[in-house]
Amino acid sequence: MIEKASVRLGSPAGRTRDALDVALVVPLQGPAGIFGPSCECCAQLAAEEVNAESGVLGRELRLVLVDGGAPPEQVATEIDALISGGVIDAVAGWHISAVREVVAPRIDGRVPYVYTALYEGGERSPGVFLTGETPNRQLRPALRWFAGELGIRRWTIVGDDYVWPRSSARAAHRYLRELGGEVCDEMYVPLGTEDFGPVLARVAASGCEAVLMLLIGDDAVLFNRAFTAAGLDRDHIRFSSLIEENVLLATGPENTRGLMTSAGYFEDLPTASGLDFAAVYGRRFGPRAPVLNSLGESCYEGVRMLTELLRRAGDVDVPRIQAAAEGLEYETPRGTVQIRDRHLHQRVFLAAADGLQWDVLQQLP
Questions:
Q1: Is the pLDDT confidence value at 13 over 70?
Q2: Chain centroid to CA 12: how far?
Q3: Where are the alpha helices (H) located in 230-262, listed in sequence order?
Q4: Are the CB atoms for 235 and 212 separated by under 8 Å?
Q5: How far is 298 from 324, CA to CA, in rounded Å?
Q6: Element holding 343 (H helix, E strand)
Q7: Edge-to-edge strand order for the sheet containing 3-4?
Q8: Mean pLDDT of the chain
């Protein structure tokens, strides 16, 4: 059971030193709220496994839930209060980069912070460790594959208006120049956009062969439905580096033609470690469990990375953890992974939508 932060906020005297308390920051509202339930379940599964292994540093690992879908300043204020009040020893979880950019400076290296979302790259704040994919390993090889295998070099970019889509788009411009490609048009919409009519009109007029979708959760769902309704799926590929089984399910099978993605994990990833994790998840949470996906699984990765870092460092002290981190290697549902420069070095796979499932095509170089 994951406790909500509000239950224990302001009550540090109630803590017991036989527990190591970790703020799990995942979205419970907004466009990204669609990912929250699977993030909670995957993190809970990881914590249960860690505790079955005698915990961390001789202490039980406990998760304290924080709503990462709230406004960034609100999230940062809550995390600051939890740390200052001695309520938590670490922070982990999936949330958008706009939240991370405010939370990381407020933590300021006082506790370790494992950020599990795929992101735009470049995070260097003290004590921050990152499990997610970055454009160089996820977007760049995918665009190279589209150019080489399908001859696609003309793209239009559609993204939500915040740091991750805009930074990823800048990377896409660089990668496409390397390939002799071009960005035909580029547009950004507010989080929570419902009417994509004007955007789709520009896509149709742009002369592009494919659309790079940099939209989050519910926004991606509505865009995909409108894309098909406008008939654009007949002649255009859609690729997103942030689309998974939840969005696929909500999009509906009739709206997934020509939809592709890349990620370090899929529910149907045909590897021993991936299939084993899906089986364990299914047994633990049953047939009504939130659909398993890469973003939820990233929270399992976050708890596991934190555990491995603390065990290797033998302490919760951030400088000691950072000194011990480089080259740390261990096994996860994503296979054998290694920490390099505070990032998780991992395999990334390309997949195409097949109705409501992802058909994993190949590992990207």
A1: no
A2: 30
A3: 245-251
A4: no
A5: 22
A6: strand 343-345
A7: 3-4, 60-67, 19-26, 90-93, 113-115, 128-130, 343-345, 335-340, 329-332
A8: 94
pLDDT band at 48 (very low <50, low <70, confident <90, very high): very high
The yes-or-no verdict on residue 230 having pLDDT over 60 is yes
The answer to whether the beta carbons of residues 92 and 306 sit under 8 Å apart is: yes
Residues 6 or more apart from 204 whose CB is under 8 A from it? 230, 232
Nearest alpha-carbon partner for 133 in 356, 323, 321, 364: 364
Tokens representing residue 326 in the block: 């480089």
What whole-number distance in Å separates Cα of residue 264 and Cα of residue 335? 9
* Alpha helices by DSSP H, the chain: 5-8, 36-52, 72-84, 97-107, 135-145, 163-178, 197-206, 217-229, 245-251, 272-285, 294-313, 318-325
Comparing C-alpha atoms, which of 246, 277, 262 is closest to residue 347?
A: 262
pLDDT tens by residue, 277-329: 999 999 999 999 999 999 999 999 999 999 999 999 999 999 999 999 999 99
